[in-house]
Amino acid sequence: MKIIVLFLLLVAYAMAVQSGPLSLDMACDRAFSAVLCTFEFTNNGREDLYLLTYNTPLEGPYSPFITLSLKGKPLQYEGVFASRTPPTREGFALIKARQSVSASIQITEIFSINRDGHYTVRYAQPLQYLSANEMRQQSYFDDVIEASQSVLPTQSVNLYLDKTRSLDKPMKQDEQTARKEVITITACRTTVSVGSDASIVEAHKKLCSHVHKVEDAVDKKNKTLYREWFEARPTHGPDHGPDHGPDHKPDHGPDHKPDHGPDHGPDHGPDHGPDHGPDHGPDHKPDHGPDHKPDHGPDHGPDHKPDHGPDHKPDHGPDHEPNHGPHHGPHHGPNHGPNHGRKNKVKDVFRKVNTGIRTKSVKYVINGVNCQPNWGAYTYKGSTTTYICPGLSNFPTLCSDDTKYNKEGVLLHEWSHAFGHTSDHAYGPRESRKLAKNYPDKAVDNADNYMYYYCLSIH
Ligand SMILES: [Zn+2]
To answer: Which residue positions does the secretion signal occupy (predicted)?
Structure first.
């Protein structure tokens, strides 16, 4: 197995060198009761660069930066979904020219591995970075730093795991509330408020009175606002149905051109499996280049042989299955236009948030144990608890008529994860608007887009 891993690393390294300054080496192995993966990010260029640590292993086991599959079936990511403040200088890791930074992650903290067998670990998040020169220019003008480049690594590692019952499992949520201050709010009525953070209660009350209005407004007004945050190109083809479900991976970098074209067929069909994604080849750049055909053609069959050009590796591997897996949402039928489907998804997320906070007993745990710098709060899909992080205390309580970070918006962001099963593809107003313009299917799955839309539409 080690030989195979080494071989994969060599192949990956050889290919990555051609694709830009940043490359990733990945290795996974069992370490007693854990499965440990090491990620080494190397700057092969001549200039220092800054890698955004958000949603990477450099931040810790706090985002689905990998997928883990057993015989083609992806395991559910059981880690946190956080609200991260728009990145500042501190959100980036410096990688000097010809040097590397690395991180080791116990992936048993974010996946429950209960069955013996052959597993595939795949890198699944685009790496966003900028050059040292760009960093100097940007930080001179602005606190918020925007990465200029994006690359989606293609690395995957296979490993056989047995005696998996004895492996560590992800932390249970109730282990995180011990000795913590907890605010409980049942059906929008505060039941515990002694010593609690009054601003969180205030922000939550606003959420209670506003979310249903925002849900209604999606159809009736704010058309400009809806387009700005969810689909800035309304004629965009039905390339990726909005119904891929909460576990659909972010399979293209934020700069991936959305031009699969309207010919991609309204029924995206069984080809867009759960493992579709990091196999775009190491040359997956902001532009597919001259080899990338602007559309996949009308007969985009179940074999999904996209013409990504000679650099596209046909490495769907043993775990590329012709089905969406158990987490795939309701099928996006051919009779529903993509816009209609997206709008329904947006309404559905707001409806679920509204129903969740109105009918359930929700908790806010103050200073959650997993909190990181630059986090406002975090939660889990399907949870009724949101963990508030110290970083949130510096921000205003309520939404304003701009895109400034605030508590009320962060709570909406978190409940959109917990009740609406959204993910995090991008953070901050600029990146979120870009999603709406270039990847509307990701925009309607991205928690920050809901946050901005919510705050702006109640003003
Ligand atoms: Zn989030």
So the answer is: 1-16
Based on the number of CB atoms within 10 Å of its own CB, is 81 exposed (0-12), middle (13-18) or buried (19 or more)?
A: buried
Per the document, the length of the chain is 459
Rg over alpha carbons for the chain, rounded to the nearest Å, is 21
Residue 22 sits at φ, ψ, to 5 deg, of: -100, 130
- pLDDT for residue 304: 40
Q: Which of 286, 247, 220 is nearest to 74 (CA)?
A: 247
What average pLDDT does the segment 319-324 reach? 38
Comparing CA positions, the residue from 53, 254, 66 lying closest to residue 151 is: 254
Cα–Cα distances in Å, from 19 out to 23, 152, 219? 8, 10, 44
Q: What share of the chain is helix, strand, coil (3-state, %, to 5)?
A: 30, 20, 50
CA distances from 163 to 33, 34, 166, 167, 275 (A): 10, 11, 6, 8, 25
How close is the Cα of 384 to the center of ligand 1, in Å? Answer: 15
Distance, first Cα to last Cα, the chain: 58
Q: What is the pTM of this model?
A: 0.73
pLDDT tens string 438-456? 999 999 999 999 999 999 9
Residue 42 neighbours by CB distance under 10 Å: 19
- Helices 198-220 and 338-359, interaxial angle, to 10°? 150
- The single-letter DSSP state of residue 24 is E
Strand order in the sheet with 92-95: 92-95, 49-52, 127-131, 149-151
Identify which of 241, 234, 109 has the alpha carbon closest to the alpha carbon of residue 175: 109
Contact 274, 328 (CB under 8 A): yes
pLDDT band at 318 (very low <50, low <70, confident <90, very high): very low
Kindly state the DSSP code that residue 184 receives in the 8-state scheme: E
Distance (Å, whole) CA 85 – CA 378:
12
Q: What is the DSSP letter of 423?
A: B
Which DSSP letter does residue 109 get?
A: G
Using CA atoms, how far apart are residues 128 and 353, in angstroms rounded to an integer? Answer: 30
C-alpha of residue 237 to centroid of ligand 1, in Å = 27
Helix (H) or strand (E) holding 18: helix 2-18
Distance 352 CA to ligand 1 centre (A): 16
| Contact status, residue 414 vs residue 127, Cβ threshold 8 Å | no
The residue type at 440? P
Q: Tell me the two tokens of residue 289.
A: 């280049």
Give yes or no for residue 178 having a pLDDT over 50: yes
Query: Ligand 1: distance of its center to the CA of 424 in Å?
Result: 5
> Is residue 245 predicted with pLDDT exceeding 80?
no
